[in-house]
Amino acid sequence: MAADGASTPNARRAAPLAPLPDHRNVDTPWWQELWRRHAHISTPLRERGLQCDIEFGLSAYIVRVSLPDGSHLVISPPHEPSSDRPPGSPQGWIATREHPDDQASFEVVYDSAPSDDPGAPQRPEVRHGGNAQPLIEAIDHRLAQLGLLPHPDSAAAHPPVLPDTPPLHAPKAPDVPDTANRPTVYVYGDALLALTDQLRGAESHADAAALLHQILDPVNGLLERLGEFFEAAGEKAKEAGEDDGFDLSYDLADAAAEIRNLGEVLHVAEERMRALTPLVPAPRLPSPPARPPSLPPRALPAVQPRHLR
Q1: H-helix or E-strand containing 180?
Q2: What is the pLDDT of residues 22-44, one digit of tens each?
Q3: Alpha helices (H) along the chain
Q4: pTM summary value
Q5: How far is residue 211 CA from its own chain's centroid?
Q6: DSSP assignment of 230-273, as one string?
């Protein structure tokens, strides 16, 4: 199904994905588009055996996650004020656990939504904003405590590491940097360059698709990490407390949104690459039979010398 294929970029999973919800909207284009925009939330949870659905909540679309004990998670953007950000890319996430028959079981599992009340204490998750990875980690931690993870091993699984890919660790800076004599080292640029070289030398489209996965995975891919990087840079710029710092933070936040939007545009590029087949060279036509050698020239009659005629 199209909705399922768009949200399962990695075919080498430790456990099967939880099934899609069973209702008529699953086959409609508008629901499939919403599903795609929330794939970075639903796919990791489905890897853990949790069935997810997309519904309209109080003021925005939410991810509803069914739990084995009859309770459910509601993962939503901030309810108020309403935001004009696209579905699946809010300023923060709120995850609550609720039970229809036990109101006392209600709890806030995660809340990274910024507060409009300057006097209200901010939760530590606020610094993560709309980043999905800390949200998934917090859900993992809480559900593991409650024994509600159908596939607990999936929560500890790490994304595959491709061979010959250099580790992305920054070199330790010397105690006294000598910027005049020390060449600039671009560790992360070199790592991406190595990945590009692997792509150029890939022996199959499946290998090329695996390399694309390193970039486009909606949870752990490079584009998502770049988005987080620019968001963090924007927060750092705000710390200056100057007008230019705030202006810069807005530009960096826009850059993060554009990067994530690029990931949404290319969300099926990996599967499209994997589906490609190499061109089969056209069969060579048989060579024409070799031309028989020509007969040797006929010997000319001998001519008598002039003086003997």
Answers
A1: none
A2: 998 999 998 999 999 999 999 99
A3: 2-5, 29-37, 39-47, 132-146, 152-156, 187-200, 205-216, 222-238, 243-265, 269-275
A4: 0.50
A5: 11
A6: HHHHHHHHHTT-SHHHHHHHHHHHHHHHHHHHHHHHTTTHHHHH
